[in-house]
Amino acid sequence: MHRNLVQGFFRNARGMLRANGEIHVNHKNNAPFCHWNLEKLASGSSLALVQRVDFNKEDYPGCHNKRRDGSRCDKPFPLGESSTFKFRVSHRTKVSEITTSLGSMRKKILAISKHSNANAAAANF
């Protein structure tokens, strides 16, 4: 559930980036969080990790970590060992995206070609 939320965040945030903009994600390093593979989640939105640094709360004034639910939902939780992951738009186009695009173009060209040939054949009669 939470991984899906992060994946959706990447997808939406990517569309808001300006040229050379970055997306920063502060994330815990201990289990189970270390198994989320943020780089892979980000790559699904054409984002690439450019830097990973130790999280420093002072770098984010106004940031207050809170529990997500329960009677203590407004209380902070211990951050423990955490990192800030910095992502930018990846300029490498995925081979699968190119292949898919070429396949779609080929189908369109074939459809147009068949339609043109049918019209030419009809004009010859």
Automatic annotation (TrEMBL):
* The 25S rRNA (uridine-N(3))-methyltransferase BMT5-like domain, residue ranges: 2-67
- One Pfam family hit: BMT5-like
Q: Mind telling me which GO cellular component terms the entry cites?
A: cytoplasm
Q: Which GO terms describe its biological process?
A: rRNA base methylation
Q: Which residues cross the membrane?
A: none
GO MF term (any one): rRNA (uridine-N3-)-methyltransferase activity
Q: What is the designated name of this protein?
A: Heavy metal-associated isoprenylated plant protein 41
State the organism of origin: Durio zibethinus
